[in-house]
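User:
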Amino acid sequence: MESENKNTQVHEEKGSKKNFWEPHDESEFDLSKDFPEFKDWEMIGFHRQLGSELWNMTLQFLQAGIIIFVVAIITPLTQPYPEINGYSNIAGGLFGLIFTFCELPTNFGIGQFIAENRVRDPEKMMEFLRFFIWWQLMSGLLQVTCLSYFTLQVIVYSNYAYLSWLLLFIVQRQWPYILGIFQACIDGFQHFDKSNLLNFLQGTVVNQLLGIAFPLLGRWYGYLHPEMGEIIAMALFGAIGSYLTNIMFFFISAHYFKMIVKPMGYSIKDAFKFKFGKDVVKRSLSYGIQASIVPIIGGFTGTTILIWYTIRVTAYPSWSALVGIGTTLSGLMGNFGNYHLQAGIAEAYPNGMKHLSEFYISYAMRWRLYFISVFGVSLLAVYPFFVEVIRRISGLEYWVPALIFFVPGIFRRFLDPMIWLPDQVMLGTFHIRQWVIARIIEETIRTTLAYLYLFVWNIQNYGIPGITFLLVFQDVVSFTIKSLGCLVYSHIKICKIKVYWATSLIIPLISTLPIFIISTLWWDYAFFPLLDSIGVIFTALISILMAFFVMFFLIFFPLTALLGGWDDYMFYIFKKAVDISGPSKGLLKMIQWEMEQCIKASRKLRLHGRWSIPHEDADKEIRALMVMKKNGTLVAAPKK
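Assistant: Predicted structure:
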């Protein structure tokens, strides 16, 4: 990767004496006057990717409270034994290879084709969607029939007979296997406000409610039917609840899809027509087969490694579930980390906008590292609080060993940007063949090392350190080799990969240091008195809310602005993202005001804009892409 130049010279505009710290006129960035028909999520630019992440910010407060409630009250009831999740993971992996093979033409994903053709050919976009839907419907019937027969005739007499009922239901979920199709389209349209709302309602609200009711129903059923038992019954009923959630949100996402395509002259009925060209089938097959090579190989190696683990690692289902729970909170580091980069590049690169693609990459990495810094440091700071809370909650005694994997999970998460970026770039630019080769090499290394770990070096016999390495860091070597190779290839052959370290990582990390001081003061003077007076749950909720408030409002965002971690264009994009941030807008407006005051001080210190990310060429290509989108939108949909 090419990092930024370390010079701190004065940047001057051509024909201007303006210094880099002096304010720019924002009207030179604003495209709304030239394209008044496109607003907010329909206006092209990185504000959509950033707005998608900021939209979720307020929901993180609510989600944090829900997590505490679920862990403290619900988990002892719905997941009293770690094996429940472990058995579900094993069952899901046994048929994974076959599922992937049956979805050959659709494994590349609909989102890229939606993003690419929405700009220049809406009718072709609908043809891709129709083909995806009909293929999934027909292949799903074949999967349900054949795999159900195989389960009833073979699996019931094997070592996995205890998973038979769970496997039968997992197979049934393959039809209709289009329940997420419209939500994937919404992501391709880059209407991230709608997709974020769907994700929150489905994952945090409805799925949690059904995730309580159905496992409890399964626990009751398993108690009355000892031939199935509580553990398998709870895993089965939990899967049923999740499936019902998917069905419910299929119809809700279809409604939002209709709202987006209606101005283009389309309806839901148009999506189910058996009408698509040979070119659509050919291209879907071409990319789908290439994209399927990796999932098929990955499915084979994954199933093989899974079997190895169940054989060689004592109590593997329990350890697997404990690692999953122990690393759950570290997942917060990835909550602000997707940025839908693949969709943005798929919209720009195939339409000839190379500089815009490079700009998206640099900005996405900037924001990914920006948030992973603050969340990683904050989670390390609050680890003692989390340990104390778990130990004091009755009914979680089986989950206490999961605390061992909390810190390793955080350090593992710091590697996520390196894993994420090359896949986004190569798939977004449709360099599928090169990506497949890289992934085959990765899977080969992964499988070879897994065999060495389990059968030659016997790492599982080294106690907790061995289990931690096998279940948390097992794939580090393989994905590091693959990621570095892909990044070098992308930088040379596709577009420049530039990470601006000062504004992306160095300044954000410096800005997080006060968090340790504040967390220490809270631990010494507030946490234990609150535990004794209001109890564990309310103390945990207050501590989490305080962490968010202090982290964002008082420290992180203002301090990064003061230290020169922003430039005028970056702040303009931030303000546009705040305007479309939905439920987070009120809180973010306050942060925006604080940052404006800090930027004024940063200008006086001549720090603001010193480490800017170039945007001029990208801004020109955004304008060109907007013209293309305007012309494509004017093309009427074909008569019904």
